[in-house]
Amino acid sequence: MNGKAKSTLNNYLRCLAHLALHYNRSPEKLSVEHVQNYLYHAKNFTKHLLRVSLNTPFSDSEQPTK
Q1: What CA–CA distances, in Å, run from 9 to 47, 49, 59?
Q2: Residue 5 Cα to chain centre, angstroms
Q3: Model's pTM, two decimal places?
Q4: What phi and psi, each to the nearest 5 degrees, are found at residue 41?
Q5: For residues 17 and 20, what is the distance between their CA atoms, to the nearest angstrom?
Q6: Neighbours of 30 (CB within 10 A)
Q7: For a surface tag, which of 6, 9, 17, 40 has the fewest beta carbons within 10 Å of its beta carbon?
Q8: Phi and psi (nearest 5°) for 62?
Q9: Rg for the chain (alpha carbons), in Å?
């Protein structure tokens, strides 16, 4: 695709696969609204995971050293 690196193409394909799995249908059957909703969901879910991981207390064995 227009001189893109193989790793870039693999990432594009991986993203398309996740999108298709989320809606359980082929990417070519998805509307722009589907894609926008998926991106909104993915962004907010990532923020949620980050918030949860930052609020998780360390156990004694996992305490970072100073």
Answers
A1: 26, 27, 40
A2: 21
A3: 0.58
A4: -60, -45
A5: 5
A6: 17
A7: 6
A8: -105, 0
A9: 18
Q: C-alpha distances in angstroms, 53 versus 11, 21, 22, 28?
A: 25, 25, 23, 35
Secondary structure, 3-state, the chain: CCCCCHHHHHHHHHHHHHHHHHHCCCHHHCCHHHHHHHHHHHHHHHHHHHHHHHHCCCCHHHCCCC
How far, in Å, CA of 17 to CA of 13, rounded?
A: 6
26, 19 Cβ separation under 8 angstroms: no
Contact 33, 41 (CB under 8 A): no
- Give tens-digit pLDDT for 9-52: 999 999 899 999 999 999 999 999 999 999 998 888 777 667 77
